[in-house]
Amino acid sequence: MSSEKYYITYNEIHKTIKELGENIRESGFDSDVIVAIGAGGFIPARMLRTFLCKPILTVGIAYYDMHNKPSEFPRKIQWIDEVEQKLSGKKILLVDEVDDSRVTLEYCLRELLRHNPSEIAVAVLHNKNKEKRGSLPEEVSWYFAGREVEDHWICYPWDAGDIEEHDRLAKQTADKDDRD
Ligand code: G4P
Ligand code: MG
């Protein structure tokens, strides 16, 4: 991964998610339910609901431990039985903010597939173009990405301590992209 950081604003994300929603609708994939992978997928899933009008269920998966150290495998930090019961026979759209190594996504997809959804698709805000360690199970019928991006570290606005400073840095990123 390059050391370059990409700062993204809420407005950019909103526009990307609107396009993502349109692509999903045009594909004909009409989910019964959105399953958001927390915490990164919560805000994108909520924005997507504005365009798809589907209920959201949430699961919590983390790749970092309590001390912010990367762990070897994704861990369930919240996985409600009720979520599983509600998924049998349903069409699921699994939503996360970024497809990086794909390990969390694969883990989540395999867990959800155990509960016999009728169809399962994935939507991510950003897909990093890189070699993936995880893979999408063949049952996944659709894969939607809001943006295809290089393997940079993306700084999301919900992680910002100072949102004005974050937006200023995002503008610098955008100005630089315009110049390149
Ligand atoms: P993937 O299956 O979706 O590719 O995710 P992967 O396991 O590779 O991601 C591991 C963690 O790294 C995830 O956090 C993911 O959100 C985070 N991550 C990967 N690339 C970036 C990036 O460019 N920017 C930011 N901000 N985060 C990135 P997590 O443990 O799920 O944390 P959270 O969702 O609770 O925040
Ligand atoms: Mg996450």
Secondary structure topology:
Blueprint (H helix, E strand, L loop, with lengths): L4 E3 L2 H18 L5 E6 L3 H11 L3 E9 L5 E9 L2 H7 L3 E9 L3 H11 L5 E10 L11 E10 L3 E3 L7 H17 L1
Parallel strand pairs: 1-8, 2-3, 2-5, 5-6, 6-7
Antiparallel strand pairs: 3-4
| Topology pattern, helix = H, strand = E | EHEHEEHEHEEEH
Shape: globular
User: Which ligands are bound?
Assistant: guanosine-5',3'-tetraphosphate, magnesium ion
The side-by-side strand order for the widest beta sheet comes to 4-3-2-5-6-7
Total number of helical segments?
5
CATH topology: Rossmann fold
Radius of gyration: 16 Å
Please give the CATH class.
Alpha Beta
CATH second-level architecture: 3-Layer(aba) Sandwich
How many structural domains can be distinguished in the coordinates?
1
**How widely separated are the two ends?**
20 Å
How many β-strand runs? 8
Question: What structural class do helix, strand and pairing data support?
Answer: alpha/beta
List keywords for this structure.
globular; Rossmann fold; alpha/beta; six-stranded mixed beta sheet; 180 residues; two-stranded parallel ribbon
Question: How would you describe this protein?
Answer:
The protein has about 180 residues and is α/β, with parallel strands linked by helices. The protein is about 35% helix and about 35% strand. It has one domain: Rossmann fold, CATH 3.40.50.2020. Helix 1 (about 10-25) crosses helix 2. It has helices at about 10-25, 40-50, 80-85, 105-115, 165-180; strands at about 5, 35-40, 55-65, 70-80, 90-100, 120-130, 140-150, 155. It is globular. Strand 2, helix 2 and strand 3 (about 55-65) form a beta-alpha-beta unit. The chain starts with a strand and ends with a helix. The chain has a 6-stranded mixed β-sheet with strand order 4-3-2-5-6-7, sandwiched between helices. The protein binds guanosine-5',3'-tetraphosphate and magnesium ion. Magnesium ion (MG) binds near residues 37, 40 and 96.
